[in-house]
Amino acid sequence: MEYCLEQFRMGLQKLHVELSQEQTEQFLRYYELLTEKNKVMNLTAITEFDEVIEKHFLDSLALNLVYDLKKEVSILDLGTGAGFPGIPLKIAFPKLKLVLADSLNKRIRFLDEVIEELKLKDITAVHARAEELGRNREYRESFDLCVSRAVANLSSLSEYCLPFVKPGGSFISYKSGEVEQEAAGAKKAVAVLGGEIREIYKFEINEQKRSFVIIDKKKATPKAYPRKAGTPAREPLS
Question: Which residue segments constitute the domains of the chain, with CATH numbers given?
Answer without folding.
Answer: 6-234 (3.40.50.150)
